[in-house]
Amino acid sequence: MSQLLPPSYCDLLHRSAAHLGRWQKLEHGSYSNAPQHVWSESTIWPQGVLPLRILNLLIWIESSVVLYQLYSLLRSERWNHTLSLGLILFCNYYVLFKLLRDRIVLGKAYSYPVSSNSLGLKVQ
Q1: Which of 2, 34, 46, 56 to pair with 105, CA 20 to 30 A apart?
Q2: Tens digits of residue pLDDT in 48-107
Q3: CA gap 41, 54 in Å, rounded
Q4: The model's pTM
Q5: CA–CA separation, 111 vs 46, rounded Å?
Q6: CB count, 10 Å around CB of 8?
Q7: Are 47 and 107 within 8 A, CB to CB?
Q8: Phi-psi label, residue 21: left if phi above 0, alpha if psi -120 to 50, beta otherwise
């Protein structure tokens, strides 16, 4: 999942939305890949809500995998199972670290307001 939805893709979605200025109304149920929220002009979404939601889901899934592998490592009795689970667990620690790092960086980046000067546009 972290390769299918890389943080650079989520960041690209966020930058595109910031560049366009605002979200447009979608008909409810017209797109299967879009989140199905009831659209209202009075609803103000905080900046970076939807790209961070994807990362939060990936972090939750990866954390549950790591916890399950830790449990399996503690329950293993054979040395070859312990060795293989330890190697797999080390690889998943790295993936979890990268996801957490990207979540922290993107969370801080999205917390700052986007202005025309930060995008490199000239104010006239």
Answers
A1: 34
A2: 556 788 888 989 999 999 999 999 999 988 988 899 999 999 999 999 999 999 889 888
A3: 24
A4: 0.57
A5: 9
A6: 9
A7: no
A8: left
